[in-house]
Design brief:
Elements lengths: L2 H18 L7 E3 L3 E2 L7 H20 L11 E7 L4 E8 L4 E8 L6 E3 L5 E3 L21 E2 L13 H4 L21 E4 L4 E13 L2 E15 L4 E4 L7 H5 L3 E5 L13 E5 L11 E6 L16 E3 L1 E6 L2 E2 L4 H4 L9 E3 L6 E3 L1 H15 L4 E2 L1 H7 L4 E3 L12 E5 L4 E4 L5 E4 L5 E4 L1 E2 L16 E3 L7 E6 L4 E6 L6
Parallel strand pairs: 5-12, 6-11, 7-11, 19-28, 20-27
Antiparallel strand pairs: 1-14, 2-4, 3-4, 3-14, 4-5, 4-10, 8-10, 9-10, 10-11, 13-14, 13-29, 15-16, 15-30, 16-19, 17-18, 17-23, 20-28, 21-22, 22-26, 23-24, 25-26, 29-30
Pfam families: TAXi_C (PF14541), TAXi_N (PF14543)
Organism: Musa acuminata subsp. malaccensis
InterPro entries: Aspartic_peptidase_A1 (IPR001461), Aspartic_peptidase_AS (IPR001969), Pepsin-like_plant (IPR034161), PEPTIDASE_A1 (IPR033121), Peptidase_aspartic_dom_sf (IPR021109), Plant_Aspart_Prot_A1 (IPR051708), TAXi_C (IPR032799), TAXi_N (IPR032861)
Length: 473
Amino acid sequence: MPSSHHLLLLSLSLLLLLLLFSASSTPVSLQLSRFPLPPHPDSLHRLAALASASALRASLLKNPRRHDASPAPYRSPLFPHSYGGYSLTLALGTPPQQLSLLLDTGSHLTWVPCSSSYQCRSCSSPSAAPIIPFLPKSSSSTRLVGCHNPRCLWIHPRDRLSRCPSCNSTSDDGCPAVPCPPYAIIYGSGSTAGLLMLETLAFPHRTVPDFAVGCSILSERQPAGVAGFGRGAPSLPSQMGLKRFSYCLISRRYDDDAVESGFLVLDPAKDDTSSGLSFTPFLNNTATGADEASPFSIYYYVGLREIAVGGEKVGVPRSALIPNSRGNGGAIVDSGTTFTYMAPPVFKPLVAAFVNRVAGRYNRSAAVEARTGLRPCFALPPDSAEVELPELTFRFDGHAEMRLPPENYFAFTGPDRAAMCLTIVSDSDGGASSDNAGGPAIILGNFQQQDYYMAYDLEKGRLGLRRQSCLRS
């Protein structure tokens, strides 16, 4: 890491210490909403922004190194936003402070905008709600995680912590006077940095003490904090000891609607996560690096065995669908990615299948493709009242499948909605030398998950799928 980054992290550490900390079971369900992208007068620009953000997110996911007794279920609204994500509200601290966070199954650390000194560059949007940071000084339960605390290993390699100053304390906090070094997290289109702290996570009928959460004081292109729902130890489901969680993402037509929402449920009853669902098992990416676990181990891999367009199987290389010994390949489910990503060996035959199936009805529009970064895009005949598109189907191990309606994989754009584009992204150059050659070959984004009930059965290691309306009743 460049020396300027070291100085930034050191400054963050000192600033956070001075500003923030000088003072002082029922299943749970949360509502989820999509997060809006900054609105543009031309929807071509909005699609281009979403496509770019999805591709950047895919790059980061594929290259992560580069860049108590059970209470009742808790149910929360999930709200959609035009910048591409879905948000929920969590209560943190004593007394509780309400915070809006992005639901993210592709990362495992929960972090919040933190302190009255919080700064976020390129985060403002005319349609987005103002960022309300968590205030540690207003909470009696805030504590820093010490450098010798085992939870510091959640965000730093062991060899770095071997340089922590010696500590004679036997406190469970791991010498909070010597804080865990600052973290810096890079997402596809943004970043955040801060210190790890312990706080009380509050729900209506239970509390989770000593919840490890990032206190970020500096971010870039992050419209809200993140609720990490990945498979790692720092994740919210792991720290809460959840056996299950599920969510249902409403249609994109409700982006930035403050009334309509989908929902998130923590520890739903078993009956709720089995009725009418088809299941596919989670897979593990067991590739390892130099003396450490695979950076891909936090992802929810599923066995995608076949892709079909208009009922016909697409010729996808089998090697792209299964992680190899180096951890490359395979498919993951990610609520934090907007448009699904596919590596070139998967994307190219898929595009060819769509082009072949609509040949003679619609002409490709190179101009729209150039402006949005999406492909293929098709021009629609003037005054078209309806369109005809082949169905896109994902078939998984265990006979589970997602048969997507056209609004889950095509978006209308341009003046008078005169064009439509496939909402799946790939590497821009399509070359094998791309930085994205490693990691997951397919990242199933939230645009394709609209109006699907997604049940994560952590106890049995499987994902349940059911198509339904996700509007919260």
